[in-house]
């Protein structure tokens, strides 16, 4: 069953780019939210993760802060 994945990111963040490429490489569909242009979504990210840094991945409610490949794989069960 497909996971519901949201990536809170900015276009210039190298770890955001890596995280999104990792998801693409593993054929994981995700919603990308650019928090540099959407203050309400930035606040939503902070409320969910307690963090202001990006990337923040929400994988079916599991929050992964940063590009932590092992935690992302565990949350996705891949």
Structure explained in plain terms:
The protein contains three helices and four strands, in the order βαβαββα. The model has no long low-confidence stretch (mean pLDDT about 95). The protein has a four-stranded mixed beta sheet, with helices on both faces. The chain has about 80 residues and is of the alpha+beta class. The protein has helices at about 15-25, 40-50, 70-75; strands spanning about 5-10, 30-35, 55-60, 60-65.
How many alpha or pi helices?
A: 3
Q: Helicity level, as a percent range?
A: 25-40%
The rounded distance between the terminal residues' Cα atoms is: 12 Å
* Beta-strand percentage range: 15-25%
Main sheet specs: 4 strands, mixed
Radius of gyration: 11 Å
SS elements, strand count: 4
Order of strands, main sheet, comes to 2-1-3-4
In terms of structural class, how would the helical and strand content be classed? alpha+beta
Q: Given the C-alpha coordinates, what overall shape results?
A: globular
**Which spans of ≥5 residues are poorly predicted at pLDDT below 50?**
none
Order of helices and strands: EHEHEEH
Helix-strand layout with pairing:
Elements: E1 5-9, H1 14-25, E2 31-34, H2 39-49, E3 56-59, E4 62-65, H3 69-76
Parallel strand pairs: 1-2
Antiparallel strand pairs: 1-3, 3-4
Concise overview:
The protein is α+β, with helices and mostly antiparallel strands and 78 residues long. The protein has helices spanning 14-25, 39-49, 69-76; strands at 5-9, 31-34, 56-59, 62-65.
